């Protein structure tokens, strides 16, 4: 088996490779996104104890732990932590390592290279908090679990050294601290309006309960009002009117109260040693007060006040430098102030020339004192949020923004492609439109005049540019293409208009390495934001956006300006949407939860009735006939069998041209494709019976064209599929011995089914030679279906198929593999159900390109579109055609952003990048010189032969 699959791989020609070696990382691009960073788990840290420079370590809301280089914002390394639970992850700095806890595991990574040093996974309980002891205490790691237990792990091996389970079962674990006296654990009381705080101190060495344990009297309305740190516990009471402090590490449990100034709407606490800065915010101002406490008596005294500044949008961050503690105040207007822990006078102040202009969520700072002892270098890792875009991060150095990472684009949920404009065609279109409104004679004069004007205007410049263009062509110099709304010569540039989960809309230039052309917010003026359902190109340069919250927007695709905003009338929110052809533009159909269908924009009418397939709240699939006025009526209903549920409904791509209605075989005969533009696939699964069924249905009549059932299917894993032309490819996890009753091929199964009008060559089947056919007139003919199944070595999260302009180029199936973090390109001819089984292909089959069937498809590393890059969190892979028939553009999103272009049948319509025009011309000239040199010799020989009579 192994030999067969390797032989198959060796037989594949170069055309199945993703790209050539010199095209890797040139035609493709990748933006490694982390997502919005967590405040408590983002920090500057020296990866090696004696290192002079620091890296930025951050943990995001997507549970991605990463090291970011402060110089350029590049990702040094990153790891996807466990995302199987709803609890947030935490990360802490350690000597030479970064320790992280997520779900039921704790991991330590090398701070320089990001390699896993050790890992400990716990069967019971989830990690709530992690703390790392100092180097003097052996770098021990203490973990607080959601089952109230506390574990101490060895800092070098991660093994559990002791475990404490003595907490009251009625108490809720909240936070963990390591103080000079030991490990301090904080618990709260559930279900009471007045929640006392329970503090337990454990010895770091043995985990025994110490003296600093008991109840701190508190009146906490919510755990969100508690602020915990390694040195201080604080909380607010009386509706944010009282702030209480409880220093940790002493022997007192009596908190100290501080009165909160009037008008304060938000408080944040920043402890640093025995000093704490309290940041107060009102509606329009913010300021801070620095306090210091004594562990001996628990007293808290005010040290100094930082005067208020206009604009409440600001954050403080703490930097623990070698020569003291520093507080960095970052304001959204671009001002940055540096304070020490002793006086109110700023040590330094900076004003940015280009401020962020966005609300700041949080910041982490590093302060370095220069050699003169009086000046400072301040770097801040800042996370911002603007309407529709949450979590963009920036590096602010001495007040100036050095770089920005668009982490908000990690939450893209929908996209649509916008075609860019051809400047020449646009101008000609305007002139032709003007000529169309004139008489024949006037139009002729207008065109003649235009040609003369163009010759006068562009002719001399064109002639002058000929030598330069010829030189650039011979030197293979890249032509600088126009930017903005104008496309490039081959159509590689398009805008992917993407919508974020937070209500933002952005244009990503997939031909310019994913550059963001514009951003805009589509949040409603009032009401709750519920998300985006679809983004569609409805006309040239205009994108239509349908939101779940019953709104329809039209946006300028080139500028991001909102052109139209309409409230979708009807009953309830929008359940699904789709774009259909109208007169001169696309129309959007919005299906409401109550079953009503609205044609968008409002007031538009369909040119003809449209047939849709939707899934209702009862779990049934049904067909809708939508009249020209938008009135729907149910035409059919698909009810899954007992105990089965519909898991997905797939349709053919919006752009799926068919270049040939038949498949020419090696013996010159034809098998006619079963081409049904209304073909959809409905996948159902039975979790109890471990079965899955695939149904191909005509969406107009509701007739089931083809159906098959697979047993031993693990329904807990997703079943993904894609459908195009006359074939469907789907994947599932199978091999449940308990159901099959015998040993089975356990693993991921990849199945391809291809539909033909007849299983007999040169036969059109039931349709015969009919020129026109309607699904409503009679039942559609039953196609002949050929299928083959393969074992695939990994999970497939989503499918896509390549798309070209005319559909002449062969197809490739694109599969995102979450375990390999890669997009694999599988040529359609590998997934050909006509591959001969148990024998080598004959001459006719070899001419057709068929290969011997092998039951296993192995991953060829050369077919990975992303090469060595790792793609995290990809949820959707989309394709769109370029102007070249050979090329399909690929765009993947949902986590990272990735784009490339593929040529399934090689680049047959454009010269290769390495084609040498100089060598070609040189060869022609050399042949010309050779002919000129040989011609007299041949002529002399011919004359001599005539004289000699030969």
From TrEMBL:
Residues 18-407 form the EMC1 first beta-propeller domain. The chain crosses the membrane at residues 920-938. The keyword Transmembrane helix applies. The keyword Glycoprotein applies. Its main location: endoplasmic reticulum. Residues 724-947 form the ER membrane protein complex subunit 1 C-terminal domain. InterPro entries: Beta-prop_EMC1_1st, EMC1, EMC1_C, PQQ_b-propeller_rpt, Quinoprotein_ADH-like_sf, WD40/YVTN_repeat-like_dom_sf. SUPFAM superfamilies: Quinoprotein alcohol dehydrogenase-like. It is a single-pass type I membrane protein. Residues 1-18 form the signal peptide. Keywords: Endoplasmic reticulum, Glycoprotein, Membrane, Signal, Transmembrane, Transmembrane helix. Component of the ER membrane protein complex (EMC). This is ER membrane protein complex subunit 1. It comes from Discina gigas.
């Amino acid at each position: 088996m192994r030999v067969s699959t390797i032989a198959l791989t060796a037989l594949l020609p170069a055309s199945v490779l993703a790209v050539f070696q010199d095209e890797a990382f040139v035609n493709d691009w990748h933006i490694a996104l982390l997502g919005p960073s967590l405040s408590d788990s983002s920090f500057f840290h020296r990866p090696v104890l004696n290192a002079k420079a620091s890296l930025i370590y951050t943990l995001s809301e997507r549970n991605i732990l990463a090291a970011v280089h402060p110089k350029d914002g590049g990702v040094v390394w990153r790891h996807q932590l466990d995302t199987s639970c709803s609890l947030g992850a935490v990360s802490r700095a350690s000597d030479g390592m970064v320790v992280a806890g997520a779900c039921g595991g704790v991991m330590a990574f090398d701070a320089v290279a990001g390699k896993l040093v050790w890992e400990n996974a716990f069967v019971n309980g989830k990690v709530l908090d992690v703390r790392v002891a100092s180097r003097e205490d052996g770098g021990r790691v203490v973990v607080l679990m959601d089952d109230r237990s506390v574990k101490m792990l060895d800092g070098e091996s991660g093994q559990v050294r002791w475990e404490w389970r003595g907490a009251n079962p009625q108490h809720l674990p909240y936070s963990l601290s390591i103080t000079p006296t030991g490990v301090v654990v904080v618990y709260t009381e559930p279900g009471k309006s007045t929640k006392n705080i329970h503090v337990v101190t454990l010895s770091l060495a043995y985990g025994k309960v110490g003296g600093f344990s008991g109840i701190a009297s508190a009146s906490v309305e919510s755990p969100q009002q508690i602020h915990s740190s390694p040195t201080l516990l604080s909380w607010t009471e009386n509706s944010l009117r009282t702030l209480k402090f409880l220093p940790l590490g002493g022997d007192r449990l009596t908190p100290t109260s501080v009165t909160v100034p009037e008008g304060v709407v938000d408080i944040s606490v920043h402890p640093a040693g025995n000093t704490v800065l309290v940041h107060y915010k009102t509606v329009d101002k913010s300021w801070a007060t620095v306090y210091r406490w004594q562990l001996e008596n628990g007293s808290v005294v005010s040290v100094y006040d930082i005067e208020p500044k206009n604009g409440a949008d600001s954050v403080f961050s703490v930097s623990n430098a070698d020569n003291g503690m520093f507080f960095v105040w970052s304001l959204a207007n671009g001002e940055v102030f540096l304070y020490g822990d002793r006086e109110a006078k700023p040590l330094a102040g900076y004003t940015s020339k280009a401020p962020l202009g966005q609300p700041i969520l949080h910041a982490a700072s590093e302060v370095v004192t220069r050699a003169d002892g009086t000046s400072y270098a301040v770097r801040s890792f800042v996370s911002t949020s603007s309407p529709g875009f949450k979590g963009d991060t920036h590096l602010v150095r001495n007040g100036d923004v050095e770089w920005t990472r668009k982490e908000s684009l990690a939450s893209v949920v929908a996209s649509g492609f916008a075609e860019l404009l051809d400047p020449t065609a646009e101008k000609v279109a305007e002139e032709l439109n003007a000529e169309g409104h004139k008489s024949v004679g006037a139009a002729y004069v207008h065109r003649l005049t235009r040609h003369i004007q163009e010759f006068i205007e562009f002719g001399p410049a064109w002639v002058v540019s000929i030598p330069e263009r010829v030189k650039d062509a011979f030197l293979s110099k890249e032509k600088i293409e126009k930017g903005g709304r104008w496309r490039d010569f081959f159509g590689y540039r398009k805008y992917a208009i993407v919508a974020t989960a937070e209500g933002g809309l952005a244009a990503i230039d997939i031909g310019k390495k994913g550059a963001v052309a514009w951003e805009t917010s589509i949040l409603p003026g009032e009401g709750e934001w519920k998300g985006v359902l679809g983004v569609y190109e409805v006309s040239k340069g205009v994108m239509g956006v349908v939101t779940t919250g019953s709104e329809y927007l039209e946006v300028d695709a080139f500028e991001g300006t909102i052109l139209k905003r309409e409230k979708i009338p009807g009953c309830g929110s929008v359940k699904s949407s789709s774009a259909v052809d109208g007169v001169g533009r696309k129309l959007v159909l919005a299906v409401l939860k109550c079953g009503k269908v609205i044609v968008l924009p409002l007031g538009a009418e369909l040119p003809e009735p449209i047939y849709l397939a939707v899934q209702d709240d009862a779990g049934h699939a049904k067909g809708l006939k939508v009249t020209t006025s938008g009135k729907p009526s149910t035409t059919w209903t698909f009810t899954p069998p007992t105990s089965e549920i519909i898991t997905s409904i797939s349709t053919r791509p919006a752009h799926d041209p068919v270049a040939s209605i038949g498949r020419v075989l090696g013996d010159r005969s034809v098998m006619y494709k079963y081409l049904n533009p209304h073909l959809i696939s409905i996948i159902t699964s039975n979790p109890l019976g471990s079965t899955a069924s695939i149904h191909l249905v005509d969406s107009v009549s509701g007739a089931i064209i083809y159906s098959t059932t697979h047993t031993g299917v693990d329904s807990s894993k997703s079943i993904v599929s894609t459908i195009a032309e006359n074939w469907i490819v789907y994947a599932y996890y199978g091999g449940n011995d308990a159901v099959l009753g015998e040993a089975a091929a356990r693993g991921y199964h990849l199945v391809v089914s291809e539909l033909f009008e007849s299983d007999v060559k040169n036969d059109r089947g039931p349709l015969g030679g009919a020129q026109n056919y309607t699904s409503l007139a009679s039942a559609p003919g039953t196609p002949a279906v050929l299928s083959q199944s393969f074992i695939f070595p990994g999970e497939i999260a989503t499918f896509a198929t390549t798309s070209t302009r005319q559909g002449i180029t062969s197809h490739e199936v694109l599969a995102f593999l979450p375990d390999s973090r890669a997009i694999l390109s599988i040529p359609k001819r590998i997934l050909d159900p006509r591959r001969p089984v148990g024998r080598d292909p004959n001459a006719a089959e070899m001419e057709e390109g068929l290969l011997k069937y092998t039951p296993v498809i192995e991953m060829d590393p050369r077919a990975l579109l992303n090469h060595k890059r790792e793609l995290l969190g990809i949820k959707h892979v989309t394709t769109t055609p370029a102007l070249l028939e050979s090329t399909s553009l690929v765009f993947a999103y949902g986590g990272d952003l990735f784009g490339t272009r593929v040529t399934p049948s090689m680049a047959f319509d454009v010269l290769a990048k390495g084609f040498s025009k100089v060598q070609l011309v040189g060869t022609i000239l050399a042949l010309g010189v050779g002919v000129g040199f040989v011609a007299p010799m041949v002529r002399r020989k011919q004359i001599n032969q005539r004289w000699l009579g030969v």
